[in-house]
Design a protein that fits this description.
Keywords: Chaperone, Hydrolase, Nucleotide-binding. One of its GO terms (cellular component) is cytoplasm. By secondary structure, the chain is α/β, with parallel strands linked by helices. It has twelve helices and twelve strands. It has two domains: about 5-235, Rossmann fold, CATH 3.40.50; about 250-340, Hypothetical Protein Yjia, Chain: A,domain 2 (2-Layer Sandwich), CATH 3.30.1220.10. The strands form two sheets. A seven-stranded parallel β-sheet has the order 3-2-4-1-5-6-7, sandwiched between helices. Bound molecules: guanosine-5'-triphosphate (GTP).
């Protein structure tokens, strides 16, 4: 067995920023490395894993793409994370580089702490933390502090935290990153891009490399092989949750909605746009049956931006059913969202 530690790249970033797109690009352009991928997402539909397995490559075959859908990776370290990594390392041809795609709500720092686990720390190292950000969302100020709360409290208790739940997750992810990928450059103009860049720089406690991308396309040599050993550098990566050992995901809620078959793609897309517009849904994704079509429709909503494409035929052993994972902030009207999607 080699004494060299196997490098692991952690890919973080808010819901729908483009993490899976980046991982997919790296699988397709591995720069000579034999890769393995661990993907963690909310909801048990396994959409990301399915997308990634769809582009499996000899350098990263489908059985090297492992999905962990039982909740947050960093909260299931002993039960899920350690055994999964251990099994990957025990393969006859172990991976030369491991990519971990966290869920969009995950805080990367607790995951970094998992690398201190005795079984792991001598065998793997965190090569780098990459935070993917949606340039349009950042430019729009969707992760900005809650300004009315700041104003109301200005003369009161300075220690009160005025960040919105979205802001906190974004800040933690950027603060932990070695590189920030500003993705979706097609959705912003030059001024928006400059705004997004300066917001990222302002949130980062250290100088951070910011790279602009379309669909996560970046030269793998720029993001892999950083040698950051981030697990040994935790103090430089502040988190909102440093003061308490535990963290939770109570600020957000996830539901899975079963839908009827739809007559047209436009009808589905219209519904997903409407739940974002009217109920503040942050993310919706899953597969939908469109009447008369042998292919399944992959639907992806990020706020009111919705993409839908037929990705592959339904297979004979597969239940032809339409299901979407829907994520919103705590308290979103789940009954109304369900009714809107099922109506
Ligand atoms: N316009 C545009 N859309 C993009 C770009 N990159 C990704 N998308 C779309 O954004 C949606 C979300 O992309 P993903 O790569 O799944 O994002 P993610 O961060 O993995 O999402 P979660 O795992 O749910 O948090 C998909 O519909 C993508 O096709 C881009 O550069 N421009």
């Amino acid at each position: 067995m080699s004494l060299e530690k196997i490098p692991v790249t952690i890919i973080t970033g808010f819901l729908g920023a483009g993490k899976t797109s980046l991982v997919r690009h790296l699988i397709e352009n591995p720069a000579g490395r034999r890769l393995a991928v661990l993907v963690n997402e909310f909801g048990d539909l396994g959409v990301d894993g399915d997308i990634l397995k769809g582009c499996a490559d000899p350098s990263c075959p489908a059985d090297s793409i492992v999905e962990l859908t039982n909740g947050c990776l960093c909260c299931t370290v002993a039960d899920e994370f350690v055994p999964t990594i251990t099994a990957l390392l025990a393969r006859p041809e172990p991976p030369e580089h491991i990519l971990i795609e966290t869920s969009g709500l995950a805080l990367p720092k607790p995951l970094l702490k998992a690398f201190e686990w005795p079984d792991l720390r001598t065998r793997i190292t965190v090569d780098g933390v990459i935070a993917v950000a949606d340039a349009e969302a950042v430019a729009d100020g969707r992760f900005a502090p809650d300004l009315p709360a700041v104003a109301a409290q200005r003369n009161a208790d300075e220690s009160i935290d005025h960040d919105t739940p979205l802001g906190e997750v974004f800040e933690d992810q950027v603060a932990c990153a070695d590189i920030v990928i500003l993705n979706k450059v097609d959705l912003v103009d030059a001024a928006g891009l400059a705004q997004a860049r300066s917001t990222v720089q302002a949130e980062s406690p250290r100088p951070v490399l910011v790279i602009e991308t379309l669909e996560g396309r970046v030269d793998p040599r720029v993001v892999l092989g950083l040698g950051a050993a981030a697990e040994a550098d935790l103090d430089a990566r502040p988190s909102h949750h440093d003061s308490h050992a535990e963290h939770d995901h109570d600020d957000f809620e996830t539901i899975v909605v079963t839908l009827p078959d739809h007559a047209t793609v436009t009808e589905v897309v219209g519904k997903v746009e409407a739940i974002a517009r009217e109920h503040g849904v942050l993310r919706a994704k899953g597969y939908v049956v469109v009447c008369g079509k042998p292919m399944r429709l992959l639907v992806q909503g990020v706020g009111t931006r919705v993409r839908a494409q037929f990705d592959r035929p339904w297979t004979s052993g597969e239940e032809r059913v339409s299901r979407l994972v829907v994520i919103g902030q705590k308290g979103f009207d789940q009954a109304a969202v369900t009714a809107a999607l099922q109506g």
